[in-house]
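In keeping with the milestone schedule agreed at the kick-off meeting, the structural modelling team has produced records for the first pair of proteins. Each record is given below as a sequence line and a structure-token line. The laboratory manager (R.T.) confirmed that both were archived under the project's standard naming scheme.
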Amino acid sequence: MAKFTMVGTEKTGTYVGVATSRAQVGFRDLGNGSFRVRVEPVESAVEELKPSFAGWKSGVGGSEFRFSTVVRSAELQATVAQALKVVGTKGRVVVSEGCPQWVVEAVKAAKPAKTTKVKAAAVETEAQERERLIAAVKAKKLPGYSLASRWSTKTLRAKAA
């Protein structure tokens, strides 16, 4: 499975998941048929999302904005799908490489958060997102843009914004 960077995951880099404009939703295999499902909302969405994740472990407070829960493999798809419905898929959605097809289907089934009459979210892979961001940085001719392909995705997102 391809790595999906989620802040505060002890740099395990073993999550696969989805990034939306409001949160990242990811999961990783803990072994023995258990999975950790993690939701990392953007700071502006934390208070709104907090009631929906009551009962989940919460790191909300200080600089850690996250919710997580451990589920058995039989509950994984339903839990991830429900988290995506709560978070919503408004705007650009990035699905990490290595995600199973059922994650892509869950993204398509999730409704955009707090909107109506919105077209289905565009789904792009992490590699497609990097390509788009590198092109945007090069188009802006930012300092060091010729080395943009070596920058992390996080840096590219910040520079392209």
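The second protein of the pair:
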Amino acid sequence: MTPVKSVGYYLAIVLVTAFSILIINCSKAVPSRNSRKGNLNNGAETTQITRQEASNHETSEIIQTLIPDDFAIDEEIDRFNRDEIIIELTKLEPQTQGVRALSVAYLLASLKHDYLTNQKKIVSLLQSCSREGINRIGSIQCEMATDYGIRLFEKGDDSLLNPLLDMGLVSDGDLAEMLGSFYADILQHQPEKFLLALQTRKPKEQRELAWLAGAEDGSGMPPETLSEVMISLERISEQKSNRLADTARRCLKEIEKVNHRINRLTNE
């Protein structure tokens, strides 16, 4: 005869079964050590990718801001970290050519990064434009090189003045106006520097460059500028012992002549 199992027996079986199910469910809910490590690694990779995407976005912003349409806008340089700009420009440098490459060189020179190498790229193009002709090299390239050369001169590089004077002898149109305004500004604020650069040139070239300075952007010197320049040139030309006296007299004559002609045409 089979013995009758007590109620306590069945209750014990139910409790054991329930406890076993609870243990199984807990083991599924808690990830293993390797699994947790994998999840942490995935999180790190996600963070790294996010940072990389942010870096790429910032890189794009730097380049798009400083070289929109291939022309350098150095007025915006202070918006970014100098080292980051240099990193992005040097990465971009091998991929560029033509006017965009010239813009990269100018910005790197502006940041004093490998200055002589980058400045030389601008000077070399200026020399090619003045020796081989603007039409052969390209008006856009020559105008950009002139603009960047003027900016570097204004930042303190006096060695750019002679290549920029050479450009004046072959310029016309917009380029002549750009250079004329540049020459006039030097004559107004640093007359001796301008005359010293002209002194080594032939008298014919001195007259041509002085004419450009007097014409400025084609409308002539403003009255105040003209008066200031003429007073400076007259003072230097009257100094018999001054080696710049002859050059000052030539410049004075040409500047008076071109402004007289412009005023006459304006009043007709």
